[in-house]
Write the structure tokens for this entry.
Amino acid sequence: MQIRDALDADLPGILDIYNDAVQNSTAIWNDKLVDLDNRRAWLAERREQDYPVLVAIDDHEQVAGYASFGPWRPHDGFRHTVENSVYVRSGQRGGGVGRSLMQALIKRARELHKHVMIAAIESENRASIHMHQQLGFIHAAQMRQVGCKFGRWLDLTMMQLPLNRTPHP
Ligand SMILES: CC(C)(COP(=O)(O)OP(=O)(O)OC[C@H]1O[C@@H](n2cnc3c(N)ncnc32)[C@H](O)[C@@H]1OP(=O)(O)O)[C@@H](O)C(=O)NCCC(=O)NCCS
């Protein structure tokens, strides 16, 4: 398996994984399926902002997963903090893809001198909470019933990873 920056050719694979998460999980709190143009615009925006989009490519040259980070909140004072997202194709989970993507993503964040990485995770997503804990993220907060999907309220677990010890911004 290879981890590298996403190419335009990876967009159909990214689209599949994204729409599967929309349709079948509470990992992402969107209800609407998107098309290729939507993912193309997302990738272009990330590139323009100098934020990475990484893909894991399996032995069949298929996208097994992807990970990215973007701004956490829009105001200037939050510019040293990023929020990550990570998705592994259903059927390829539990084999180390998510961890490898996240390790590469964290390295990128450190290279960009980001200070904190935030993960906002649906509170019943044990796999994601466990993986982030293993990567060094600590529990920051749990926010009750701040979302909804599939006709029920969702709680949000906030986790954070310190990326450097820089004493002043
Ligand atoms: C969460 C996700 C990214 C993890 O990626 P993965 O490739 O399946 O995970 P890995 O194989 O790299 O495992 C990482 C750690 O999580 C653990 N883990 C994986 N699946 C698990 C599960 N279902 N329950 C509990 N722990 C699990 C692994 O055991 C491993 O921990 P360990 O080092 O203590 O053994 C992946 O399952 C996924 O894409 N899920 C659907 C989308 C999603 O939830 N994205 C995150 C949104 S916040």
About this structure: The mean pLDDT is 97. Residues 21, 25, 27, 86-88, 93-99, 121, 125-128, 130-131, 134 surround coenzyme A (CB under 6 Å). The helical segments are 11-24, 36-48, 97-111, 126-134. The chain has four helices and seven strands.
